[in-house]
Amino acid sequence: MDRTVIIGTRGSELALWQANFVKDSLAAINITAELKIIKTQGDRILNLSFDKLEGKGFFTKELEEELLAGTIDLAVHSHKDLPTENPPGLIIAAVSEREDPAELLLILKDCVDVRQKLSVKYGGMVGTSSNRRKAQLLAVRPDLEIDELRGNVPTRIGKLRDEKYDAIMLAKAGVTRLGIDLSEFHVEELTATEFIPAPAQGALAIQIRESNTELFEILQALHHPDVAEELSLERGVLKMFGGGCHLPLGVYCRRDDGKFQVFTSKAEDGEGFPDRYFIESDTLDGVADKIVARFAKDRKFPNKVFISRDISETSYFRKALEKHKIEIEARSLIRTVPVITKFDSYILRNIDWIFFTSKNAVEYFFKLLPQFPKKVKFGVMGAGSEDMLRRNGHFADFVGESNDTADVAADFAALANGSAILFPGADNPMRSIQQGLSAETKIIDLPVYETVLEEEVEPTGADVVVFTSPSNVEAYFADNLLEPGQKVIAIGKSTGKKFDEMGVKYTLPFSPDEVGLAEAVFGI
User: Fold this and answer.
1) What residues does the Tetrapyrrole biosynthesis uroporphyrinogen III synthase domain cover (predicted)?
2) I need a labelling partner for 495 at 20 to 30 A (CA). Which of 79, 175, 359, 378 fits?
């Protein structure tokens, strides 16, 4: 191209970073470009929430109008801000690599409470203008107050610094791109699988006139077709739901071990409890249709679900099921009892890590009132153990994020190999994590509880039966069989292996916690 390309962009720091990123990428392939700053409706109206603004494309419409008028050659957008349909005459010519689409919860340090999930103090004020974020936040922390938060990234952080909020939520991608130092705050990173992002969050879209075939061909050097395929699914689901940026919808698609994994969260409004759905597929053909069908208003749910553990009245799992009038039968088929009542904290003097494979291990260890002569790090198998660790006043330095203990062991070994690790746990542990550690690692097993099977376990007539441990499977099937038509959900691969041995089909939730369980029931 023998002329300078004009790039249209909004004027915020993040938008300018994005536009300059494209400008520099074009320069790398010997294309000269310059920026034209354009103010959008979303930039001008800062006193209203998005759901009160009329129309769509609050941050894109004016850029698209200048494209159509020919005053700019291309527009750079945060892909999540774009309406699901291009105006006639415009196309997305290229999609960037995707930054991590995780969310960040920034908390004033004097508003941190480790005993609360997400670490915001009880009843804290959290700033966000997103109904999607609001619904997902309130699902796990209904005590929080959510207040409107508008402005660019530095402006929002400034409002937190001025203590107008106790915490705010931001997309990690914007903070990363701007290189903002967050050390003055406590930061909780919420992964895209636990807190589902907006469709296309973290990616840039380069929009041009459809007739500009020369520029289209040039921009293919900047295009990432694998990212575009995943974003097409996410935005396709958004389009099928007929929503814009005010819709409380999160969709995240990724490839993992050769398969596509898609996570969806949808609520009726910002105050509503969201339903979640997880699907794994070899291809994306028909996946959007399957997702939308799961959220149909007339779909049928199980009448009753049995789970082999006690469930509190305020638990996420209970709220997710009771929303759809699903009866819950919750009873543990095992008992746990302590095996020691005294503990010499001297053993902790040379310990670097303490790793818990269950919330029972956490509970019984801290009942021993350990005294820590030096700072130690804590590792946990999953979210349930992490929550129990928080209740005892400690953050986890490592949280296993997989159903497969071998994967958790490998991830933990990368951090802890060669150190001294204490493993409080059952009196006959499976030692899955220990087996993944190197020979140079000092391993100390500390039995703190034992499991006792209940006698004469009564059968259940529930439509869906959820088993939370291998011991619960053993206790139930010592006297009972599955009834015709009952669906089985198993938490963790070790529980699933029991059903493999029995030749029983089962569903394995993506995550071995209450959110994963709710997703699994929703998917049946």
Assistant:
1) 318-507
2) 378
